[in-house]
Amino acid sequence: MADQFYARRNKRPRIPSEAERAKLEEFIDSIHYSDKYCDNENEYRHVHIPKGMLKAIPKDYFDPEKGTLKLLWEEEWRGLGITQSLGWEHYEVHEPEPHILLFKYVLHHPLSNCDPSTIHIINS
């Protein structure tokens, strides 16, 4: 399973060039971050990038078979302008809506702040 997971990424992180980053700048303020939610293992959130931003993202960030974004390394999603605390992992793309990226954070990570009294808990 882990091999399949990593096959959905670039072999190594590729940070956008300055020219590529300049094409993304106009969209960065329109990135939307969902509230966090968690289960017994992870904290989750989804990030909506503007649909127009997909056209400005480097082509090698996309899966040529599916036409959706690959799973991005932290350096890559940060290079696109997505900002979150350390430890978040891009683990899935919502294929029906490829502008929605799904992230998870290990619940027992020392920096986790998943508080059952303030964050929706998913029954597992």
From TrEMBL:
InterPro entries, per the entry: Cyclin-dep_kinase_reg-sub, Cyclin-dep_kinase_reg-sub_sf
Record keywords: Cell cycle, Cell division
Cellular component terms (Gene Ontology): cyclin-dependent protein kinase holoenzyme complex
A Pfam family the protein falls into: CKS
Listed GO MF terms: cyclin-dependent protein serine/threonine kinase regulator activity; protein kinase activator activity
SMART domains named among the record's database cross-references: CKS (SM01084)
A biological process from GO: cell division
Superkingdom of origin organism: Eukaryota
Function: Binds to the catalytic subunit of the cyclin dependent kinases and is essential for their biological function.
Similarity field: Belongs to the CKS family.
Protein name: Cyclin-dependent kinases regulatory subunit
